[in-house]
Amino acid sequence: PDVVEHFGSPFQNPTTVPVLLVSHLVHDHGIKAVLTGEASDECFLGYPWLVPNVLSGLRNLPKRLLGKLRRASTQSGFSAARDQNLVTGLSSRFEIAMGPAEFIDGPDTRYHASGSTRGLATDSELSYILRTLLHRNDTMGMAASIESRFPFLDSRLVRASANLPYDCKVRRDPLVFDAEHPFFRDKWIVREVAARYLPPDLSQRNKGMFPTNAFQRFQIDDRFFEDSFVTDWYGLARPRLRHFLGGASPSLKLRLLLLEAWAHVCVRRDPREELSSKLATHVTVRAE
Questions:
Q1: Which residue, among 199, 172, 206, 162, has the nearest Cα to 46 in the 3D structure?
Q2: Under a CB-based contact definition with an 8 Å cutoff, are residues 250 and 221 in contact?
Q3: Contacts of residue 256, Cβ cutoff 8 Å, sequence gap at least 6
Q4: The predicted structure's pLDDT at residue 11
């Protein structure tokens, strides 16, 4: 309830909860502002899916060859795809589609002019994921009366990273044994700078995500949704509700639970204690 009140919408990132707890801990130690590393992975390619995985490439080779044969035997749906992109862009007034272009100084023959999707990875990543992370940190920080600052989002640094050659961000290294991308070092230039000030076990260690998987272990009793905002909104009588929930996946139930929590706190403005009690009664977290 505390998280959804300050987040302002149904949140789906479970790390939002520990970020709020850490923010309160920061405040309790008398600290008013913090520096965070958001945008470093987007600007300098630190996410595993942005780095080549040679083992995955070998495993997927038969599938990729088959896909090429299928594409060669079908007509292109270019017009339909273009129209869909225009409709999607219109809904956001093309902010997402055109925003990254502001940080590109001009064509770089090393990747922009060649049309390489590898070189344009930074441009595409400065969008949805980063926006949600910034919203999370900003709202959870303000909930604890602290302020988050994002040095990697300095406009000059973002512009430089968007125009930086790919091999300055990702580089082959035979000494890298990361299961996500063996023999490739992510965020290479950031690690090189960090190595001037930090020992190797920090500057060169593998990236680790927030070890938070509580949402995946939620077990939600269907009775949680009886007499709820969700049932009222969709006009579901109890027999129809049981039929719907009987075929719903755990992830869909979780999204509905988060929608219900948001409606309880932000729409109906009912006492948060009622929601806490309902969650404690009908939701359990499975052990690892």
A1: 206
A2: no
A3: 225, 230, 248
A4: 85
